[in-house]
Amino acid sequence: MARLAQTAGLTDIQQEILSTVRDFVDKEIIPVATELEHRDEYPQQIVDGLKELGLFGLMIPEEYGGLGESLLTYALCVEEIARGWMSVSGIINTHFIVAYMLKQHGTQEQKDHFLPRMAAGDIRGAFSMSEPALGSDVSAITSKAVKDGDEYVLNGQKMWLTNGGTSSLVAVLVRSDEGHPEGTAPHKSMTTFLIEKEPGFGEVRPGLAIPGKIDKMGYKGVDTTEMIMDGLRLPANRVLGGATGRGFYQMMDGVEVGRVNVAARGCGVAQRAFELGVSYAQQRHTFGKPIAQHQAIQFKLAEMATKVEAAHAMMVNAARKKDSGERNDLEAGMAKYLASEYCKEVVEDAFRIHGGYGFSKEYEIERLYREAPMLLIGEGTAEIQKMIIGRRLLEEYRFQG
Between the CA of residue 332 and those of 139, 267, 313, what are the distances in Å? Predict the structure, then answer.
């Protein structure tokens, strides 16, 4: 039987990279993921292995020591990693978004300073938009940067930083009214700053604190934190791109590729859920035969496999559209929306196939059942994706009356 979610048209190099990652996932991640997740333990050994494989520099250009690969290659690697343990893909995702933003929008000095060490995995990235009272309304950001001589002083509280503790570089979006008269649209008075810090918790540099990890239902292992800026001073050369007022657009560009990443994570988790479900259905016997031979279970497996295939195809399409240089917010929104919803449904069907055993922590599906809901929220909720999709469709299909 052909393996689900195959991708046509890959180069020999892409196939070799994916084969290496898949082998790493099968040998180094899947056997230990559930145990580490139950302990909420950071997977340092796995991260060191990914660093050795060069995955932290997968999309960073070769001139900076990276592999210079496409978004498609990256997304397919994320799909494989999430199939092993979604938390590990989260560790890479935020790093990748910051590296992408630097590559696309950074000054030459910023690229030269950060990208080589990011490619080597010596600097790990995190990015921060959300705030405690913000939700999906990015325009309501209250964290602020005020110019003071040759420096900026940042104050405010940020929320939901993946890699907040383990990262050493944070790209943060704040309001900066300098040079923007009163009445300027909120998204035109935002700036992205690059904050270098020590990994860890507590005060990680003067004026910057990372409280302890947020305790979560799932998505464990990876650290999710708050970030408190209280008189944090940064030099002007740590404004991403060198000019204020561009932060919203820079962040949205990063989030756009992040949505492809979340779609890839949904595909990977759904694939693993299908694998677990189809395997268990052939081992578990009821009424004298494997439950896989009962029509009701076959219907479930058919629906699950079809959803895995459909989500994968949309994710690949969105990645290829971005790689071509075209606008892909419609395709990325569709892929993220479909993949996260289908992931939830496939995981639940695999959980149902396991019956009572699915409720036991002995079985891997229990972990997937707690992880899948995060994908419904990360990088924009389903409702936000529908808004993006709807607006873009109205642009493309404008009524000519």
Answer: 21, 14, 12
Q: What count of other Cβ atoms lies within 10 Å of the Cβ of residue 30?
A: 15
Both tokens of 338, joined, read: 């479909």
| pLDDT tens sequence across 134-186 | 777 788 899 999 999 999 999 999 999 999 999 999 999 999 977 666 666 77
Tokens representing residue 40 in the block: 């909420």
**What CA–CA distance (Å, rounded) separates 251 from 98?**
9
The residue from 151, 309, 379, 383 that is catalytic is 379
144 close to 155: Cβ distance less than 8 angstroms:
yes
The encoded tokens of residue 127 equal: 């990015």
Query: In the predicted model, what is the mean pLDDT of the chain?
Result: 93
CA distances from 164 to 27, 205, 224 (A): 28, 13, 6
Inter-residue contact 250 to 60 (CB < 8 Å): no
Strand pairing report for 169-175 and 125-128 = parallel
Could you give the CA distance from residue 350 to residue 372 in angstroms, rounded to a whole number? 12
Residue 226: active-site member: no
Using CA atoms in the order 372, 353, 283, 304, what is the torsion angle rounded to 10 degrees? -60
**Exposure string for 112-133, b = 16+ CB within 10 A, e = fewer:** ebbbbbbbbbebbbbbbbbbee
pLDDT 10s digits, 200-259: 999 999 999 999 899 999 999 999 999 999 999 999 999 999 999 999 999 988 888 888
Phi/psi at 30 (nearest 5 deg)?
-55, -40
Q: How far apart are CA 105 and CA 110, in angstroms?
A: 9
Tell me the longest C-alpha to C-alpha distance in the chain: 80
Determine the Cα–Cα distance for residues 28 and 45; give it in Å rounded to an integer: 9
List Cβ neighbours of 329 (8 Å cut-off, separation of 6 or more). Answer: 256, 388, 392
First to last CA, the chain: 52
- pTM value? 0.93
Report how far residue 191's alpha carbon sits from residue 157's, in angstroms, rounded to the nearest whole number. Answer: 16
Q: What is the pLDDT of residue 377?
A: 87
